[in-house]
Amino acid sequence: MTADTASLSAPETLSLRERKKLRTRTALVDTALALFTERGFDGVTLDELCDAVEVSKRTFFRNFASKEQVASAPLEALWDGLRDDVERLSFGHAPVLEMLQEALLAALERLDDGGAWVTRVRQSRELAERTPSITAYGLQYCDRTSAAVEATLQRKLGLNPADPRPRLALDLVVASFHAALRTWTAKPGTPTHAALAAELRSVFAVLPGALTFTTA
Amino acid sequence: MTADTASLSAPETLSLRERKKLRTRTALVDTALALFTERGFDGVTLDELCDAVEVSKRTFFRNFASKEQVASAPLEALWDGLRDDVERLSFGHAPVLEMLQEALLAALERLDDGGAWVTRVRQSRELAERTPSITAYGLQYCDRTSAAVEATLQRKLGLNPADPRPRLALDLVVASFHAALRTWTAKPGTPTHAALAAELRSVFAVLPGALTFTTA
DNA sequence: AGGCTTATGCTCCTGAGTAGCACTTTGAGC
DNA sequence: GCTCAAAGTGCTACTCAGGAGCATAAGCCT
């Protein structure tokens, strides 16, 4: 479930079997991103990808649920991180929206491994921009994770399940990240982790204005 | 089997050919929703669906891009309506968010055909809840439509393309509708168009609270 | 070491979605 | 009315994503 997070933060306290599995998983992600970027998502068959990693298709589907997932893996790690944060964190009585914003920034911070993750995110994002099915998968994963986070919030904070505000706040945070991702990807030059975090903070800052701004 | 389901803008001045095409399209949507509801999305093959409607698979794929789309058709009509509204409406100086809310409510109103559409939406929604690929497709369609609406807003209002607020406002409206849809679907009894509109207004009303509410 | 668990490979299968070709229907020009 | 081009449709064959069963090998435990 959190294999993604583990694969990218790479703790060395894993058994040999688990490390091996992680190696093939990482190899699949990296090779997939490279091949998809080079020849397009539809231009690469799973057989080709598996041949390149020297792994059977069976093994591929034990690590990923679909061809789209392997291309979305980097971002899934972020949402998994957010989910784990909300599960772990103790909530005070600050506004829920701010808590979620902090949790996402913390999850993002935790994925800073010196550039490897952020490079994968950039590739994944550019692929998603020209491949609708990847976008679809990613959005569905966000949706599912958001539902899980909402349930956790309700449980930990004793909220009324009929209250739509927690989920709206969550959707707002997710929308903010997507907005940050768009502008970050559009910027030329070497993409950095810090720049992405800065974009996200910037979007968070203008968020209240999204409700009130007028044309004039 | 009577009026138009999706892809509105349908005056009664359709040519015979266009009416025929629309009839097969509607038959495909209704039959698909019925079969999927009865035996599950994965329990029905396209061949079976096409046999039931007495149409070839080739014809199916001329009307729909995927198996998921035919199950999402009712909601696509709503987003298409929102897109058309924003394209058509003249914007005053009111807050953009309120304009979008009004536009969505207007699009929803326009789809009130006495219960046929709303029944299909209910079926489509219940299918999406237990079929991830339908959810994925629907979210991707929302995303694409939102991008188009954002572009229209920028053009008509002369906004800065780097300003994330229009898209955030849009995402907020979309998230509100999804929240309304969830609670509307969860309610037992015969689903009505008016009840859905009421849910949506209700979510719009608590929207500002989503930014500020606290646990205590 | 030996048994147990788990990953992996191999092979066969279903079904979504595409493409080529031929046939029918519709709408427009004569 | 008649013809013809264009569009819709059916049929068929094909590619490829994804799943299932069975056998093997590798890692883990006592």
Question: How would you sum up this structure, described in words?
Answer:
2 copies of one chain form a homodimer. With 216 residues, the first copy, chain A, is mostly helical. Chain A has one domain: Tetracycline Repressor, domain 2 (Orthogonal Bundle). In chain A, 76% of the residues lie in helices and 0% in strands. Chain A is built from 10 helices and no strands. Chain A has helices spanning 3-9, 16-39, 46-53, 57-63, 67-88, 96-110, 116-129, 132-157, 165-186, 193-212. In chain A, α5 packs across α7 (116-129). The structure holds a DNA duplex (30 and 30 nucleotides).
CATH structural architecture of chain A: Orthogonal Bundle
Q: What is the CATH fold-level name of chain A? A: Tetracycline Repressor, domain 2
**Count of runs of 4 or more consecutive helical residues of chain A:** 10
The level of helicity of chain A is over 70%
Q: Report the sheet-strand fraction of chain A.
A: under 5%
CATH level 4 superfamily of chain A: Tetracycline Repressor, domain 2
Sketch the major β-sheet of chain A.
Answer: none
Poorly predicted runs of chain A are: 1-11
Shape of chain A from CA axes?
globular
| Structural class estimated from helices and strands of chain A | mainly alpha
Short description:
With 216 residues, chain A is mainly α. Chain A contains 10 helices and no strands.
SSE layout:
Two copies of one chain form a homodimer.
Chain A: H1 3-9, H2 16-39, H3 46-53, H4 57-63, H5 67-88, H6 96-110, H7 116-129, H8 132-157, H9 165-186, H10 193-212
Helix pairs in contact in A: 1-2, 1-5, 2-3, 2-7, 5-6, 5-7, 5-8, 6-9, 6-10, 8-9, 9-10
The structure holds a DNA duplex (30 and 30 nucleotides).
